[in-house]
Design brief:
The complex is a heterodimer of chains A (about 250) and B (about 400). With about 250 residues, chain A is of the alpha/beta class. Chain A has helices at about 1-20, 70-75, 100-105, 125-130, 140-155, 170-180, 200-215; strands spanning about 25-35, 45-55, 60, 85-90, 90-95, 110, 185-190, 220-225, 235-240, 245. In chain A, α5 (about 140-155) packs across α6. Chain B is of the alpha+beta class. The mean pLDDT of chain B is about 90. Chain B contains 13 helices and eleven strands. Classes of the chains: A alpha/beta (about 250), B alpha+beta (about 400). The structure holds adenosine-5'-triphosphate (ATP) and magnesium ion.
Chain lengths: ~250, ~400
């Protein structure tokens, strides 16, 4: 009972931040630094990174391999502990945050991976429902209908009962997008979502992602190497050696 | 509340993880089923043997039993003076007694002519002996000398006596080297110590076994007034009788025999050990299956963590896999157990039954086995790091 109370309290905090923060950025980073390794192997990968992402904004992050893009993404995604600097996501300070806070926060962050990372034993529809199952207070049927709607939105209405194994790379990535969005996230993080796809499909997927996210008023931060998709961005950020470069419009 | 639970359910991940890998599931079920069958058989044999040791003991029409303190079990009975039984008649609550001779004699198979030890009971045909109400009439046939009643449930090695008898043939054979004729059939059942039984009159018994002192018997049955308190009667009988006899209640008489097999032989230990082996084999199989299942899906579990699922939820998935495996493995084990028990009953005439207590015991052992294995396999889940999947 008490645990449940505390749980709903936390949820309430997250929600109230979301609702009452028209003036609060989705992501706000203030001189964030990060290191990997211990002792003499300790190596700094992020140096004093500062940036903001506003609600509904689509931001692309590019940079050479190994410059720290994925690291930044996992920090924003509440998947790693923040070591130094301030990192606010949806109003929650992540430095020194509790595991519980991070777990609840993750429900509000959609993630799309380089590999699709679908559950092999679930059909497309069930995979998407794993996302909508995170929504509280909806009946099973509602969540399933929700999942179906999202599959329809990504154009897979006739592939619902296929296993990932039987889907093409582009279709799998569409399912991953539907899954990420079906949990109604406020922020979508994507790490090279097109790298496993050919350029035409990649382009299609990214436009779809942008359209659906913007409709949801969901901010997007996408890491990419693909120069052909840069135009979907509202803003482009370049990173080099763990430092952000001056913004180019 | 139930409806609420139903509405709140999510994708049945544990079930799908298991059923979408049919080969692995089949191996798991076969393993658990094997462990379950092993436990059913070992425990069934153990209990069956203990029960089988008292098949005849259970049939006596008696409230108290007199035995020599030197009798250790049905296969090593010592005699005591019949006078002791007569003395108990002095007690006001005793309404009847039956002296019984009890020994093993060599029975010659009338077909193959080979011999085999059979348990022979000798009593006065006019005395009550068995609870079976039809027995008293059959016992009349024993009044002529040299007649025996043969146990139809005796093992086949004693010859096709029941068949021949039913066909109306005169069945004659040798017991302890003396000619006897089968005068009827009774239904007693083989016990652990005896493969077959025959009942005869004391007169015939003494002829077959002339070394028995005429005044000596192996058991004395004592029937009490229905309102009598057996404990009190035992107390006063023990006080009045010399210590060359011991008085047992019916239940003590049965337990005494069971206890002999339990304590003086390693049967209990061997079969419990066998069941334990089944348990351990099952644990290893379930652990292997669940551990490789978790390892194979580690990236997917990490993805779920990244999506905002709790580690506890994932523990729950593995635990549920364990429960499903337990149930899916138990059902075929139970059915095979039933079938094998029937096979054992028909081929060895051992009274092995699927009693609910053992059915529950094996179920809980399997459940425990699966849950223990699942909880060890869960520790692998801690390795699922959502930061590593980008
Ligand atoms: N778990 C880790 N432990 C130690 N060092 C790491 C770890 N992950 C990444 N690094 C190092 O940190 C640096 C930044 O890695 P990161 O994955 O953030 O780069 P990236 O910009 O995403 O590169 P890419 O474009 O190739 O994906 C690299 O030098 C990498 O070797
Ligand atoms: Mg990367």
């Amino acid at each position: 009972m008490q645990i449940q109370l505390r749980f709903s309290n936390l949820l309430f905090i997250v929600k109230s931040f979301n609702n009452s923060k028209f003036n609060i950025s989705t992501v706000q980073i203030e001189s964030l630094s990060h290191w990997y390794g211990k002792g003499i192997n300790r190596k700094q990968v992020l140096h004093n990174v500062s940036m903001k992402i506003e609600p509904g904004e689509v931001v692309l992050l590019t940079g050479p391999s190994g410059c720290g893009k994925t690291t930044l993404l996992t920090l924003i995604g509440a998947l790693r502990k923040v070591e130094q600097g301030d990192l606010f996501v949806l109003g929650n300070q992540l430095r020194g945050s509790l595991r519980k806070t991070r777990q609840i926060l993750r429900k509000n962050i959609g993630m799309i991976f380089q590999g699709h990372n679908l559950l092999r034993c679930l059909t497309a529809e069930q995979n998407v429902q794993m996302g909508s199952d995170l929504l509280r207070g909806l009946s099973y049927r509602d969540r399933r209908d929700h999942a179906r709607e999202w599959l329809r939105a990504v154009g897979l209405e006739d592939q619902m009962s296929k296993l990932p194994h039987d889907l093409s790379g582009g279709q799998k990535q569409r399912v991953a997008i539907a899954r990420a969005l079906s949990a109604r996230p406020k922020l979508l993080l994507a790490d090279e979502p097109t790298s496993a796809l050919d350029s035409v499909t990649g382009r299609e997927i990214v436009s779809l992602l942008k359209r659906l996210a913007v409709n949801q008023h969901c901010s997007v931060l996408m890491v990419t190497h693909d120069p052909r998709i840069l135009d979907v961005a509202d803003r482009l950020i370049k990173m080099e050696d763990g430092r952000l470069q001056p913004v180019i419009e | 509340m139930k409806n609420n639970f139903w509405q709140n359910r999510g994708i049945p991940l544990a079930w799908l993880l298991l059923t979408r890998q049919p080969l692995r599931l089949l191996v798991a079920i076969a393993g658990i089923c094997f462990a379950g069958i092993l436990m059913f058989m070992q425990l069934g044999f153990r209990d069956g043997l203990f029960d089988a040791s008292v098949t005849v003991h259970r049939l006596f029409d008696t409230d108290l039993v007199l035995m020599s303190p030197r009798s250790m079990s049905s296969i090593s009975m010592s005699g005591f003076p019949r006078r002791r039984l007569v003395q108990t008649m002095a007690h006001k609550d005793v309404i009847g007694t039956t002296p019984v001779n009890w020994n093993f004699l060599l029975w010659r198979n009338p077909q193959t002519l080979s011999t085999r030890a059979i348990l022979a009971l000798g009593f006065e045909p006019s005395d009550p002996l068995l609870l079976d109400p039809g027995f008293q009439i059959k016992a009349q046939a024993l009044k002529s000398s040299g007649r025996v009643l043969f146990d139809v449930l005796s093992r086949e090695e004693f010859g096709p006596v029941p068949k021949w008898f039913a066909e109306g043939k005169v069945v004659e054979t040798e017991v302890a080297g003396k000619r006897v004729r089968v005068a009827g059939l009774v239904s007693l059942g083989p016990s652990f110590g005896a493969d077959g039984n025959l009942i005869t009159s004391r007169e015939t018994f003494l002829k077959l076994l002339p070394t028995t002192p005429p005044g000596s018997i192996e058991i004395g049955l004592i029937r009490l007034r229905p309102e009598a308190d057996p404990e009190q009667v035992i107390e006063s009988l023990t006080a009045s009788l010399p210590n060359d006899v011991k008085v047992f209640t019916r239940k003590e008489f049965i337990d005494f025999e069971k206890n002999y097999w339990r304590t003086s032989t390693s049967i209990g230990f061997i079969f419990t050990l066998g069941a334990g082996m089944g348990f351990i084999v099952g644990c290893v199989i379930v652990y292997q299956i669940l551990y490789s299942d978790v390892s194979d899906h580690l990236a997917e579990y990490a993805t779920l963590l990244a999506m905002g699922y709790r580690l506890k939820t994932l523990f729950g998935v593995v635990a549920r896999e364990g429960i499903f495996l337990a149930i899916m493995g138990y059902v075929p084990a139970y059915i095979s157990g039933q079938a094998l028990y029937a096979l054992v009953r028909s081929s060895t005439k051992l009274p092995v039954e699927m009693d609910s207590q053992r059915a529950f015991l094996v179920f809980f052992l399997i459940l425990f086995m699966c849950m223990a294995s699942a909880s060890v396999a869960m520790r692998k889940l801690v390795d699922a790091d959502p930061a590593e999947i980008f």
